[in-house]
Specification:
Elements: H1 2-7, H2 12-40, H3 46-74, H4 77-82, H5 86-98, H6 104-120, H7 124-135, H8 146-159, H9 163-173, H10 180-197, H11 200-204, H12 207-214, H13 219-235, H14 239-252, H15 255-261
């Protein structure tokens, strides 16, 4: 059964196709609803008119209640992803995407959850595809999702080596109002991007402010941020800062883990780098 589930995994392209189809059908139903209500008053005796009117309204309410129930079920998927329970999250998201809803928010939120899942699975191309689809919809439809989608998109593009695309995504985030968590995530992405293009001086500017912000990040992110700052310090000949920052990073996360995630950090810990003993 597990193998069957993996073989029938919903692809990003299929999820986008289903979402677009349901959004189009939902718009059509919303446009037809006023016509259906007016039509109820134009045919048959009064008792039939009322019955038809209640039927139309009841059907719409039933669709709304069904959408709410499915949204509540789908809302648990981010928690499953955070806990590493990817198969359960996949099932919840798949059901939410395959089910019909005339409401755009009920269709786009599961698409965002699928982007979160693919990001956690390090499937960068699908992550980028899903995020770009979300950002292609009008702002009202993706309210509360656009900033997280841009952040995830930026990370996926950096992992794919698309530096130009990552720059554009980062630039768009500076025009948005961000929460504290989003500001911290953006700072880490900016450091990652700057390290890839060798912008060491800009990384080192306002160093202590960046260190203080890094202390508010989750452990792994805080370690990576301070390791990247240490690398910038080293490249600028500030060995005192480089040692201090690299030591702080090592207290949080094993240096080998950081180097596996970002091989350019091997400069900081050459003796611990993979293959150092053989060398």
């Amino acid at each position: 059964m597990m193998e069957l589930g993996l073989n029938t995994m919903l692809t990003a392209e299929a999820a986008i196709h289903r979402t677009r189809r349901d959004l189009t059908l939902g718009l059509a139903l919303k446009a037809l609803l006023p016509l259906a209500v007016v039509g109820c008053f134009l045919v048959g005796p009064e008792s039939l008119r009322l019955a038809m009117l209640f039927g139309v309204i009841g059907g719409w309410v039933a669709l709304g209640l069904s959408s709410v129930r499915r949204a509540q079920l789908a809302a648990i998927s981010p928690g499953l992803i955070a806990a590493g329970r990817f198969e359960e999250a996949e099932q919840q998201i798949d059901e939410a995407i395959r089910s019909f809803s005339p409401f755009s928010s009920a269709k786009l939120r599961p698409l965002h959850h699928l982007a979160l899942l693919r990001h956690a699975q390090r499937r960068w191309r699908e992550t980028a595809l899903l995020c770009r689809e979300l950002l292609g919809h009008r702002a009202g439809a993706v309210k509360g999702l656009s900033n997280p989608a841009r952040l995830i998109l930026t990370d996926a593009l950096l992992e794919m080596g698309d530096v130009r695309g990552a720059y554009d995504a980062i630039a768009s985030l500076y025009r948005e109002r961000l929460s504290l968590g989003e500001v911290l995530h953006l700072m880490l992405l900016q450091l990652d991007y700057s390290a890839r293009i060798g912008a060491w001086k800009s990384m080192f500017e306002n160093l202590m402010n960046k260190v203080q912000l890094a202390e508010l990040m989750p452990t792994e992110a805080a370690a990576r941020a301070q390791a990247l700052l240490a690398l910038a310090a080293m490249r600028l000949g500030r060995d005192d800062w480089a040692r201090w920052l690299s030591d702080r990073a090592r207290l949080l996360v094993d240096a080998r883990q950081l180097m596996e995630q970002r091989p350019l950090l091997c400069e900081l810990w050459k003796s611990d780098a993979p293959g150092a003993e053989q060398g």
